[in-house]
Amino acid sequence: xxxxxxxxxxxxxxxxxxxxxxxxxxxxxxxxxxxxxxxxxxxxxxxxxxxxxxxxxxxxxxxxxxxxxxxxxxxxxxxxxxxxxxxxxxxxxxxxxxxxxxxxxxxxxxxxxxxxxxxxxxxxxxxxxxxxxxxxxxxxxxxxxxxxxxxxxxxxxxxxxxxxxxxxxxxxxxxxxxxxxxxxxxxxxxxxxxxxxxxxxxxxxxxxxxxxxxxxxxxxxxxxxxxxxxxxxxxxxxxxxxxxxxxxxxxxxxxxxxxxxxxxxxxxxxxxxxxxxxxxxxxxxxxxxxxxxxxxxxxxxxxxxxxxxxxxxxxxxxxxxxxxxxxxxxxxxxxxxxxxxxxxxxxxxxxxxxxxxxxxxxxxxxxxxxxxxxxxxxxxxxxxxxxxxxxxxxxxxxxxxxxxxxxxxxxxxxxxxxxxxxxxxxxxxxxxxxxxxxxxxxxxxx
Length: 446
Ligand code: IFM
Known about the structure:
The longest helix is centred in the middle third of the chain and has 25 residues, at 200-224. The protein has 14 helices and 13 strands. It has 446 residues and is α/β, with parallel strands linked by helices. A hairpin with a 7-residue loop joins strand 6 and strand 7. It binds 5-hydroxymethyl-3,4-dihydroxypiperidine. 5-hydroxymethyl-3,4-dihydroxypiperidine is lined by residues 36, 39, 179, 308, 361, 399, 406.
């Protein structure tokens, strides 16, 4: 297929046209689940994470993604699980390193695989939402300096054009980049993710480049995907998934804790969401070089703001742990405060960016499924309240369908509605009680 992508005939519409927004609004609420390629597919041995996992000490317990859930082979059965819950949406990511194993060499067989996944969704009445970048990059792109080098962006955009043309007649919902702020800070400030850099100035450059990549990718998709796959009047519905986390002062009375929390909130949450909503890129934290950049392509690049919500952290300027769970609060298996009602607060805050919102992730690491049923109920109630209050929320994707490879935490964080046996990922998935709870809660709201 032509890397510039010759679009098929169909409908394309811009992001800011109120009529098209109305059309999207009439679409049914998206009730879904999410996964990402490297976390579930298995065998993704051509990307930066695979290499990172081989380093002793990089991943909790020495885990490696390995065969993961073997979702690459088992996607049809896994989609049967989604259909079994009567959901109408599935978010998954395409693995760039499979699709473009060497610069400019595109793998048609890999593209055919993802077409088959999108078609399998459609055949089950499930709207596919495709993420183009979910943390991993091809080894060759990492060798060129990855996201740190602005001049590398055209590689990504060329890839996006090819995918847009190749999947556009099956896919309308796109996520350009997942959690640019998380990748920036984990990969380049705390250094716990590849490439393991500890330099906050470089982290800000990476986040800026990812925001610019979102903008350029969005425009590339609007050019290459002109087919309205589901007949709702829109060929592309595009957003980025922003990790929104509450950052509150650990000691409410201490001015320096307030300052630390508010500085972090401004850069991690507000600055990123503002850019995604078409504003300027302005990233600044003490002790790092500020990045200011006007990217005209950001205007109109987002049809919605993807909100990934999990928890809140209590922030302090002092002590060995600058961020921790609230003392005495219930925590999940990874030590994150369990705070589903925080989703309502996140949606309230995100309304300020004046975009429709989709909760593109929300979930809990809870192997015993002790907390998850209640977490789901309370999260959905928070959405109900936000919508009743006028918030334009158009979907909720629970994270995750399956237990998966949880990045630096390896296999210790079990987020799945379905448990996976990682000793033998070909064994049947095991439904946790919360899978039924989610299905029932969705059914009640239809
Ligand atoms: O598993 C991750 C996902 O890849 C991105 N958002 C947060 C999830 C839980 O940590």
